[in-house]
Amino acid sequence: MPDPLLSLCGLDAFYGDFQALYGVDLQVAQGEVLAIIGANGAGKTTLMRSISSLTRNRAEMVRYRGENIGALRADEVAARGIALVPEGRQLFPSLSVEENLIIGGQIGRKGPWSLPAIYTLFPILQERRHQQSTSLSGGQQQMVAIGRALMANPNLILFDEISLGLAPIIIKDIYAALPGIIGEGMSALIVEQDITKALAVSSRFYCLQEGRVSLEGASATVAREEISRAYFGVA
Amino acid sequence: MEWVNVVVQGTLLGGLYALFAAGLSLIFGVMRLVNIAHGDLIVLGAYLGLSVTTVLGLHPLLALILVVPVMAGFGYVLQRGILNQTLGKDILPPLLVTFGLSVIIQNTLLETYSADPQKMNAGALETASVSAGGLSVGLLPLLTFGTAIAVIATLQWIFYRTALGRAFRATSDNPEIAQLMGLNRRHIFGLAMALALGVTAIAGIMLGIRTSFDPSIGGGRLIFGFEAVIIGGLGNLWGTLAGGVILGVAQTIGAKIDPGWQLLAGHLAFLIILALRPNGLFPRIDG
Questions:
Q1: Does any CB of chain B come closer than 8 Å to the CB of residue A71?
Q2: Which one of A56, A118, A198, A230 is least enclosed by Cβ atoms within 10 Å?
């Protein structure tokens, strides 16, 4: 692969005293959509936290556009163009919907995403823009979380469990919007429990099992039995 | 008429207490830091004002132009240099460190300025008064009250209308996720402390014009500040003003009944409100 946008080299990461990732190697190319699948506790969220530096690592373990970023602070990583849509949305309750979006863009990176662009993507947010973010439904809150990350005009966007806790119809809507979001030359890493969804939107996937990559490959051609084996670790 | 006068004077006194409390409220609101040294920082502001007025011969109110930025700068350095290191899940380290800071400030002031009570000379402003409808109101208390309103309105505007205020609220809501917005939490906290100590400088100078002060009075100002914040409800700036007024009125009513009861009446009002409304009268409403 020619010069990946992001590469993880032997990433060891810890969740408190517990080692959550063991020597994970992973590459994301420019414009590529990657799915990360794996059971609960496999280390998916720790992987997201490590890339965005919410969990700090050794500098050379996370390499982004030719720079070792593993030891940077999370705000420095964000300024370089990596945005995270965190698990559980994590909106700012004392900010209105619009303020949540604006603060996402405060980093000041140039690009296609702005308030009007977010409102075109999710018109309901424009209607609700002055409300407290906590007064929205779960699906609408997820739209705000996605919009907030997009406002930073990232090169790489990380989605952590975007369908968790949402009604199936909402999940369908959000996944329908994804190609329009990622289609702007952005790369994306999608963590998802729903394997079918994850494989449908990605070109490649990595499967984590107990903190190690147990399988990687092309999303379109992988056999289901292979995934079950890698997912659960049983033959 | 006598009692109307008592309430008016108490209300104006409450303006001073609201100034004491505003910085405390802001710091707690943004970073959940309880600053035990706040009262001593107010006194430090008064002494800095005293130095500026005696060395440069400026009017105390003009001294604000120098003292506010100096205190704000000190606040930023203090936060980034020391207090940020104490913040975490455990609430004890910031209490202990600010308690230590309180001792250090008191003793430094004692070494520098001695224990003699000092006062700033504000000239005619100290005794000027306006009369209306049988009431005579001092210009200085009126000015203090107006300053308190202006300070709280400005803080309110910063919090709810500016990018800095958005950053304060976001960092207060969720410091970790705020970092993902490119906000450096340490810097944001530094700015919050700078703003708080800028307000504290105003409080210190208003205090130093109104009454005499010595290095040991910080603790009492801290208590008044705390009581005003808690009566008003944590994290609500207008509530803090209301809390200051309630405390001021309770004190002047107490003093009216018996001069020895001034402080006791204030503390009783605080205890009653705390017993009936543990979250204060106007707690911040958020989801």
A1: no
A2: A56
The DSSP annotation for chain A comes to --S-SEEEEEEEEEETTEEEEEEEEEEE-TT-EEEEEE-TTSSHHHHHHHHTTSS---GGGEEETTEE-TTS-HHHHHHTTEEEE-TT----TTSBHHHHHHHHHTT---SS--HHHHHHH-HHHHHTTTSBGGGS-HHHHHHHHHHHHHTT--SEEEEESTTTT--HHHHHHHHHHHHHHHTTT-EEEEE-S-HHHHHHH-SEEEEEETTEEEEEEETTT--HHHHHHHHH---
Number of Cα atoms under 13 Å in the Cβ half of residue B159: 22
CB-based contact B70:B48 (threshold 8 Å): yes
Q: Residue A84 and residue A63: Cα distance in Å, rounded?
A: 17
For B177, name the nearest residue in chain A, comparing CA atoms only: A90
Using an 8 Å CB-CB cutoff, list chain B residues near A132. 286-287
pLDDT tens figures, B167-226:
999 999 999 999 999 999 999 999 999 999 999 999 999 999 999 999 999 999 999 999
Do residues A35 and A199 make contact, with C-beta atoms less than 8 angstroms apart?
yes
ipTM score assigned to the predicted complex: 0.91
CA atoms within 13 A on the CB side of A61: 20
The reported pTM is 0.92
Closest-CA residue of B relative to A93 is B287
Interface test with B, best of A103, A132, A156, A159 (most B CBs within 10 A): A103
* Interval B83-109: pLDDT, tens: 999 998 888 999 999 999 999 999 999
CB-CB under 8 Å, A52 with B172: no
Of the candidates B25, B11, B8, the residue with the CA atom closest to the CA atom of residue B280? B25
